[in-house]
Amino acid sequence: MRRILVLAWAEVLHVVRDRATLAQVLVVPVIQLIILSNAATFTVRDTPALVIDHDHSALSRRLTADLAASGRFAVSSAASYQQAEEALLSGGTTLVVTIPGGFGASLARTRAAAVQLTINAEKGSAAMVVQGYARAILAQFTAQAGGAPGAIDVRERAWFNPGFNYQHYMVPGILVSLVTLIGTLLTAQNIAREKELGTLEQLNVTPITRAQFIIAKLLPFWVLSMLIFAIGLGVGRAVFGIPMQGSLPLLCAIAGLYLLVALAMGLLISTIVDTQQQAMFVTFSIMMIYLLMSGLFTPIDSMPAWVQLLSDATPIKHFVIVSRGILMKGAGLADLTRPLVFLALFAAIMLPLAVLLHHKRSA
């Protein structure tokens, strides 16, 4: 028993003295619990909604107020249907409520009126929940306004995913997550392996420059990740029938930019760890936060405002938006300006920072 206790105490000292391991064990789980408990929500609330009011009557304004007061929608006005279409395409809104002219007069005179709901069905089941919320609010409004049951004729249009096929929504996002995990983990483990074997110090005394070393390390994984991404697109199309509405060359070009960010993350991880085991642990810890804050599984619109702000710092969120936007919506370069700017900033900051820190740690 004494031998067991001595060996156990040696392991305790090893963990305590290893600051990286100690932080992973004590700090990372607490941070994950606080952030992810807020991010992992299946409640649909504060969903962006646009109202096009062609009636401008007291009843139409009351309907708009009821939508806003429900707490389910963040309501704003649109001047035209073209503006609403652009918001749907860019992801700026999920629901468009069109109130036709004569709505108030028709409801007061005949106790019946028409309203059009245009839903971004890209999110599949989440879009169906939004549809249900909107219908319930309209039914309650009808009852309060003195209309007959079912008096409001709701005409619905589901855009981008009319069949509410959840696979069309999930497959592009899962493909992004797999490519990210592979690129980041392989890069982090590869350089950590060099540290473990002692070959990194040997490489540092050779005539090879820092830039040559980094490029030589990252280029094979960049090519491999791009190949996996292309294969994944083919499998998604052949097996799951995912739509490919937009430009595949544009998607591949942005994927190439995004993978620079993913590989830079792997390089950054390799600078703070000393073993492959640590590299794997840190990578999976970061990926857990990435995945749950990227909108891959749960709608970002329903997260608290501070979590939505933090989600902008997760590169995978922006490439998920790009992937789904191009494949499902046929979005072009102009429609993807915001996520593309974020990815370019991440690449411009993270890659030089990773190279600089790696140089300092390996000097």
Keywords:
alpha/beta, five-stranded mixed sheet, 363 residues, single chain
Give a quick rundown of the structure:
The chain is of the alpha/beta class. The protein has 14 helices and five strands.
Word description of this protein:
With 363 residues, the protein is an alpha/beta fold. Helix content is 68%, strand content 9%. The protein has a five-stranded mixed β-sheet, with helices on both faces. Helix 3 (58-69) links the parallel strand 1 and strand 2. Helix 3 (58-69) crosses helix 6 (125-144), helix 7 (166-197) runs antiparallel to helix 9 and helix 9 (210-240) packs across helix 10. The model has no long low-confidence stretch (mean pLDDT 82).
Overall 3D form? elongated
Low-confidence spans: none
Q: Order of strands side by side in the largest beta sheet?
A: 2-1-3-4-5
How many helices? The count is: 14
Q: What's the average pLDDT?
A: 82
How many DSSP-defined strands?
5
Report the radius of gyration as a whole number of Å.
26 Å
The secondary-structure class comes to alpha/beta
Largest sheet: 5 strands, mixed
SSE order, one letter for each helix or strand: HHEHEHEHEHEHHHHHHHH
Strand-residue fraction? 5-15%
Share of residues in helices: 55-70%
Termini distance?
Answer: 44 Å
Secondary structure: elements and pairs:
Blueprint: H1 2-17, H2 19-39, E1 47-53, H3 58-69, E2 73-77, H4 81-90, E3 95-99, H5 103-110, E4 113-120, H6 125-144, E5 152-159, H7 166-197, H8 199-204, H9 210-240, H10 248-272, H11 276-293, H12 305-311, H13 315-329, H14 337-362
Parallel strand pairs: 1-2, 1-3, 4-5
Antiparallel strand pairs: 3-4
